[in-house]
Amino acid sequence: MKKLLLLVLLSCLTIGISNYTYAQSGSKAATETVDEETNTGFGVLKKYFIDGGWFFMGIVLLCLIIGLAFCIERILTLNLLTSNPRKLLSKVESHLKNGDIEAAKKEAKGTRGPAASIIYQGLARSTDGGIDDVEKAVVNYGSVQMAKLERNLVWISLFIALAPMLGFMGTVIGMIGAFDAIEKAGDISPSLVAGGIKVALLTTLFGLIVAVFLQVFYNYIVSKIDSIVLGMEDASITFVDLLVNNKK
């Protein structure tokens, strides 16, 4: 999984750097001519990105690329872990009724997903211990699976918070530069003030865009995790009930 994350991150970095280099190389033409393409949403966004300055805009872009890499890794991982616990429980119940615990363990081990892993751990404890041992194993291993599902979410949250903060910092620094230019000029020129404030606010704009973009992915990931956890808990309760009924 680390290799997958590294591959996604390198791909996003390559795309982002190539796009940023292309935007920088075309900055002169973009500022001198305003044609029909520039008036489109993407053209205006690209022009504003260039006008905002390479330093803070580059950092905000890096937050987007890295945050998006973590989002893609989580989405791919969670989709791979999504399974149908009820189908597995039906097969496990059939094996338990026949008294074949080893076949049930093999069935659980060959099924992907956290619910299957929990069922396998419970079956492994059922051969040596009682129902209490099985319940403890299910609860403990369920916590481990929860931690695995929520892996890297803290980094996505970090970049959601970091992008607008960096944007605000760029705005403050840009405003300081604008007032410094006014002080040196000794005159408040409308074009000087408006231009400086415009450039300063662009970093905040793009920081907020990045935060909103990543927040959408974050909410989708959280909802996916909640769905998997709900199925995992339901499967755990049903599994314990199956063991109790078959031990009577």
Question: What does this protein structure show overall?
Answer:
This protein is mostly helical. The chain has a domain at 2-81 and 150-230. The chain contains ten helices and no strands. It has helices spanning 2-25, 27-32, 41-51, 54-81, 85-97, 101-109, 114-126, 131-149, 153-185, 190-247. The protein is rod-shaped and about 90 Å long. Residues 1-38 have low confidence and may be disordered.
Order of helices and strands: HHHHHHHHHH
Strand content: under 5%
In one word, what is the shape?
Answer: rod-shaped
The end-to-end span amounts to 42 Å
Mean pLDDT value: 76
Helix content: over 70%
Main sheet attributes: strand count, strand direction, barrel closure: none
Q: Could you give the count of β-strands?
A: 0
Low-confidence stretches: 1-38
Total of helices: 10
The rounded Rg comes to 27 Å
Structural class: mainly alpha
